[in-house]
Write a structure and sequence with these properties.
The protein is α/β, with parallel strands linked by helices. It contains nine helices and six strands; from the N terminus they run E-H-H-H-H-H-E-H-E-H-E-H-E-E-H.
Length: 223
């Protein structure tokens, strides 16, 4: 039996169009605590863990573990409240998941988000789509370190060289390459194609992708 291929999906900006919901939740937290936050500040940290965002945007509180945890919890509660009524699925995501499943691919989520957020998305799409889930709580180092994707590879049983990562953030693309994987950039949540140019392929929508195209990217990288 042939070895399977693996597809590892980032969650925010790839499976769900969550940029605005995350920005709104961070803005609420910033206003509540009297902290500065611009849209540009948020955009440059999007895709990283909440703790890393806090340490980057507000270094003066980054060493206060209790306060960091409180702000993190508050922000994520706001986020889940915002998306609870309607999960903003990305166009083409459900169809791509279904076609990969039919082709025998192993599928994982590799997200910097907290487990509660990821569980919400897994339930909305259907747990049958996913062979493994890795969240920001499963690793000590977030993207651009490769830990999230390497753990997803381990949990699916697919070697990194046979995995493709679907990402919308430069940090995620760097993490994929550090893990020895092919990266596809998804430029549909405010990221420009130029920002994602390090990926082997950049698309505007997941609807542009097929299992055959992803398999060819993996094979081309290995040659």
């Amino acid at each position: 039996m042939a070895e399977p291929y693996g597809a590892i999906f980032d969650m925010d900006g790839v499976l769900i169009d969550s940029f605005e919901a995350h920005y709104e939740s961070w803005k609420r937290v910033a206003e509540t605590h009297g902290l500065p936050l611009s849209r540009a500040d948020f955009a440059r940290t999007f895709g990283r863990t909440s703790r890393e965002i806090i340490q980057t945007l507000w270094p003066e509180i980054g060493c206060d573990e209790a306060r960091v945890q409180a702000i993190d919890d508050e922000k994520e509660a706001f986020f889940r409240e915002i998306i609870a009524d309607r999960l903003p699925e990305m166009p083409g995501a459900r169809e791509l998941l279904a076609s990969l499943r039919r082709e025998g691919w192993k599928i994982a989520i590799g997200s910097s988000g907290p487990p509660e957020n990821v569980r919400l998305v897994v339930r909305a799409y259907g747990a049958e789509f996913f062979d493994a889930v890795v969240t920001g709580m499963d690793v000590q180092r977030g993207k651009p370190e490769p830990d999230v994707f390497l753990l997803a590879s381990e949990r699916t049983g697919v070697e990194p060289r046979r995995c493709v990562v679907l990402e919308d953030a430069p940090a995620g693309i760097e993490a994929a390459h550090r893990a020895g994987m092919v990266a596809v950039g998804v430029a549909s949540t405010g990221r420009s194609r130029e920002q994602l140019a390090a990926a082997e392929l950049v698309v505007e929508s997941l609807a542009e992708l097929t299992p055959a195209l992803l398999r060819q990217l993996v094979l081309s990288r290995r040659q």
